[in-house]
Every structure is written in structure tokens, then in C-alpha cells.
Amino acid sequence: MQHVEKTLKLTNSFVVLAFFAFVGAIVTLAFPIRMHLVEYETTVQTVLAERAGEALSIAVSRAVEREWDSLVAVSNSLDTGSVDRMQSLMDAVAEASSAVAWAGVATPGGTIVAGSYGQRVGEDVSERRWHREGLRGGSAGSAYSSQTSPITGAAHGLINMSAPVLSATGSPEAVLMYSIEISWMSDYIAETAEALDVDFFIRDQQGQAIAESRQRVDDPMSPELSSLLDGGHKVARLISPQDGTPHVVAIFPKLIDADMPDFNWRLAVRVPAMSSNSSLRDFLDAVRVNVLILLTVSVIIVIVYSAGVLRPIERLVQNGLRIANGEDVYPLEDYSSRESTGLTKLIATLDQELKKRM
After folding, report:
1. What pTM did the predictor assign?
2. Which of 252-256, 278-282, 290-294 has the highest mean pLDDT?
3. Under a CB-based contact definition with an 8 Å cutoff, are residues 108 and 210 in contact?
């Protein structure tokens, strides 16, 4: 009897087991849910970074392509037989476009014969890349980090775009060149990036910085991001630096995608990584009502099952023990389950046998 008294009742053991099973299920599900949230967040942010980078590339490409189309249109209409007309046209180009810092015309030999506001006329540019490639069909993307504006005199960066001026026979009569303000392009890119709510880094093939914005993550370019950008492959990844803010990046090996000579510029788009802990709390808050409902239903099921199945068995066992101890007890009957039915028959048989012996 002492051993029986020290043993948990069937109903109590079932309640304890149900409780630990419920808690264990919640704990077991919490880890995979957390991992799924982290993976889902990274995927969503990666897609957002990629879409933002594509939108940024399209916007910049269209802006630059407009200047290239202007260059080609001017080269097709340029009258190389009149220096005065060329000079007037170069002045008009610089006045008409806020992007163009300077426009000029050079002879096939490399001497500038007309330039915006008379600047650089007579200069020998035969060794310049834009002149050499301009004679062969056109060039774009030569960036200089510390040139001086021929108009404002301020130090700034320039991007040179050039195209040949062809004769009726198709031979180059001159080279037309636009110097585009990098500040104009970087401001345009920054406005677009701000609208898209992303940071960006633009580098040329040599790793020279063209433009960047760090409004969302106030950290410099991480070594891992720099390595990905130098790799020249389209990739998106979560970066968690030891000293810095975790962020998601998308790399685009070709920023300018337009019908013009390739700039060979690379773009990196960066957004701060979301906190998985806060997301997990938000998720748990969202499902808290459902968890409470599930807990309530579980408790009701335990109570109903215990009252309808387990407690009758306990009463039958207690009744059987009292009969076995010689007490004059009327045997209970219960048919709530197969076990209860069996115990009822067993107790009735035991009671009859004891009474016969008495």
C-alpha cells in the first residue's frame, strides 16, 4: 500500500505528461521557426537589394544614355568646315546641360579647335584615351578624381565621353568630347538611392571610388563587400562584420547598361539587416492568441479525458483494493472504456469469490 500511495495517480501523471508534451512542442518548434525567420528575412532583404540595384542601374543608365545620345546627335550635325560654328555649338552644349562641364572638338591629329567658352583651344590631346578611342568609334567612362572645372575652377571629377565626327565617306574628320560632371551623376544617383532607401558604392575596374552614399548604414565599405565588388560577379549576400552593422548587399558588375560604350563601373547596393530577435518577438506576438487558444483546447481535452476515462479507472482500482482488503463494498460498474469494462468484470468476479469463501 505504501508503494501505491507514493506513486502518482493515473490522472495526475497524464496531466503532467500532457503539460510537458505541450511545453516541449512549443520549445521544439521555436528553434526551427527562428531559423526560418532569419532565412526568410535574409531572402526578402536580398530580393529588395537586388530590385533596388536594378532600379538604380536603369535610372542611371537612362540619364547617362541621354547625354550619350546628345553627343552622337551633335557629332552627326557638326560642321567641321567652320570653327566659329563649332565654337558656338560647344558653348550652347555646355549652357544647355547641367551635366556637361565642357564640350570640345579635336582634329584627327589631336589638337582641340573648339571648346566651351574657348577653354583648352589649341591643347594637344593626341595621347588622351578619349581621343584615341573616339577616332575608333567612341569611348566613355574615363574618370579623373582631381580635375579642375574649365568653367567654375573648382576641383572635381570628370567623365569623358567621345564620338567620331564622320565625313561623307565615313572617315573621321574630328573627335567630339563631352566632360560630364561626376558630381552631377553622383547627386542624381544619391537622389535615386534615397528614394529607394538604400546605400550604394560605385567603383571602376581599378577600384577607384566614383560615388557612394552611407545614409542607412553609417559604416565604411567592409573588406568582404570590397572583395565581392572587386570580384566582378553578380551576387547578393548577408554580411555580418565583427565591428559594424550587419547588412545585406547586392553586387552588379555592370552599372551602365545602355546602347553606348561600356563605362566598366560596378555597383554595390547595401541595406541594413533586420534583427531576427525583434522579428521573432513580432511573430510570437502575432501567434500568441492562437497559442492560448491551443492551450485552452488542450486543457479542456485533458479535463474531459481525465473525467471520462481515467477517473473511472482510478475509482475501480480503489474499489478493487478495498474489496481485496476485506471491506464490504458494493462493486462499482463502469463501461466508459474497454479497460473500465474489464476492471468492472474483474472486480465483480473478485467480490463473488471472496463472498463464497466467507
Report:
1. 0.64
2. 252-256
3. no
DSSP 147-185: EE-TTT--EEEEEEEEEEEE-TTS-EEEEEEEEEEHHHH
Compute the average pLDDT of residues 278-291.
63
Rounded CA-CA distance 151/184 in Å is 15
pLDDT band at 10 (very low <50, low <70, confident <90, very high): low
Distance CA 61, CA 58 (A): 5
Buried b (16+ CB within 10 A) or exposed e, 211-237: bbbeebbebebbeebeebbeeeeeebe
pLDDT at residue 340 above 70?
A: no
Q: Catalogue all structural domains in the chain, each as residue range(s) with its CATH number.
A: 2-35+278-357 (no CATH), 43-62+185-275 (3.30.450), 71-180 (3.30.450.20)
Identity at 140, one-letter amino acid code: A
**Amino acid symbol at 50:** E
Which stretch of DSSP H or E encloses residue 267?
strand 265-272
For CA atoms 306, 310, 314, 319, the dihedral sign is positive
**pLDDT band per the 50, 70, 90 thresholds, residue 85:** very high
- Partners of 159 in the beta sheet? 143, 180
d(CA 39, CA 180) in angstroms, rounded, equals: 43
Give the mean pLDDT of 322-344.
Answer: 65
Other Cβ atoms less than 10 A from the Cβ of 155: the count is: 10
More confident residue, 93 or 306: 93
Residue 212 or residue 349, greater confidence: 212
Q: Which of 129, 136, 74, 145 is nearest to 105 (CA)?
A: 74
Burial 312-326 (b: 16+ CB within 10 A, else e): bbeebeebbeebeee
What does the DSSP 8-state code read for residue 141?
E
